[in-house]
Amino acid sequence: MAKLAKRTFDAVVVGAGGAGLRAALQLSEAGLKTAVLSKVFPTRSHTVAAQGGVSASLGNSEPDHWHWHMYDTVKGSDWLGDQDAIEFMCRAAPQAVIELEHFGMPFDRNDDGTIYQRPFGGHMSNFGEKPVRRACAAADRTGHAMLHALYQRNVRANTQFFVEWMALDMIRDAEGKVLGVIAMEMETAEIVIFQAKATLFATGGAGRIYYSSTNAFINTGDGLGMAARAGIPLEDMEFWQFHPTGVAGAGVLITEGVRGEGGILRNASGERFMERYAPVAKDLASRDVVSRAMVTEINEGRGCGAGKDHVLLDITHLDPEVIKHRLPGIREISIKFAGVDPIKAPIPVVPTCHYQMGGIPTNYHGEVVVPDGAGNHVVVPGFYAAGEVACASVHGANRLGTNSLLDLLVFGKSAGDSLIKYVKGEVRSMPEIPQSEIDRTLARVDRLNNQTNGVEVNDARLAMQRTMQAHCGVFRFKDMLKQGVEKILEVEKMVQKTQIKDKSKVFNTARIEALELDNLIEVAKATMISAEARTESRGAHVRDDAPDTPATPNGRDDANWLKHTLWHREGNKLEYKPVNLTPLTVETIELKARSY
Amino acid sequence: MDEAEKNRLRWRSRRGLLELDLVFSRFLQHEFDSLSDAEFEIYQDLLLLPDNDLLDLVDGKTESKDERFVPMLARLRSWNNDKKQQ
Fold it and tell me: For this UniProt entry, which residues form the secretion signal (chain A) (predicted)?
């Protein structure tokens, strides 16, 4: 029977991006002995990539109200967001931002010293009437500034950081209570138990399940994989936000401004295909229309390149001076990541995954909630989640821009508060760790270390990413999804046989990547299976076979599908739970067709 | 620099920004192993910079005031170009 070293804490937080840091700050300041585990140094978490800002109805430039913000968020979610959680978030937003300001966040300012706010897509005043300035930013480094402010504050509050540690699995007892995590120190490959009175996951998203993704390599859905293996269902995993034009094979975004300046999308035969899909707007049609057309071209064999897996964005007809002056960053990106100078040749592009709306099911207190088998949804004792890994659900079927940073601030804090209440009020002693939980993790690591005649990690990951991209991308087809389910279950068999040649202990990146793939594949299965089952179009989940009728506008079928998906790893079982349409204090925002 | 130390730097080349991941992964694949010990030291120090600053340097949007970083940044900038990818 293997024995592992053990460290004990009041709370263990996994992930040190915005959500993890905000939660940990709450815990440490309340006097809890708090450990934060992170694969990378906290200020290098993927939150650093957030540029747009954080939304709050401060009304510094013009009148604004949390209720209008709530309306925009519900509408943006295509009514799949839970209205209690959305009200909670939008009401908490001004305080969350002002708190951050007090933590030293260098927000851009107006002349009168108040926080400067800028307009952003989908932010409207007076229930969708006209655009409003609601986004607060720190130049184009909002995420970076946020991480710095929160990290410094945590250091001051004596949060204990375990940097370059990877959590491998969560620990539960026979009743399902969460007792901490088992984690590996990358420097030594030592596996250690982090025993805690309560555990909070803030591990971010899993955008790397797709071949084309804007996500950094660290976004491997570790919290989702751990939760799934521990019997926690994953909610609404079919909903992923895509951007129409990422550089094929790289994922770096080409701004929509390129099409605004006259860029043209072409297929393998050089045809300007948007003329067929949107005769008037053509290449300037809305995001979803462009994405759908691109995928249709690729699916029907008119894609470009050896794999016929992308289309081309052509600006060669533009005056080189226009490209150099109006689109300087784009020329740089194209040369750098596509190996193409857009003055001379078109840029290969493909719809690219950006953000995960689903995740570990929580309520607006950040408590993880699961079905109890008798029709109720009950809290998992000692388990909390916040940020992109969690599904509260405030983003529903489609996230509103700048609500991701808001989500991690508000729910990082509320999950922290719930955890404090639990630890101080309900936990009497440090529970025993069942040996079976330790063995479960060690068996997985041993399997990897001893695997022979197996599959290379890169091959299995690529098979997964290509399957997801082709079968469950931005625009979805019944038959492709059906095949996709079969294919992803085949890929799972590859992942179960991954092997590593290098068995060294110190910072063995090959081993880490294999363990990350164990997490990614859980997310990939959840996504494919949930998407195949949902036979409507809603928000970011768009199906070719969902008819646009008066009863089902844009393919959205409220009579049958106004409900959250829950995917269980065991048997790939799906069940559903109702959307909460009852806000905390205001009237329900009634269903209507989503149009802008 | 021993293999363990090199592996540490390989892992620390994982960043919060995709653009840096892409540049560093090419650099690691093609050039990293041929660095001298002195160059490893410089690379290690460079990795301590915040992601946004590092990206601006690698993109050539800013220039480093630290003389030691200049040749290393020039090499990274050359890996900034996908044409060298096989």
Answer: none
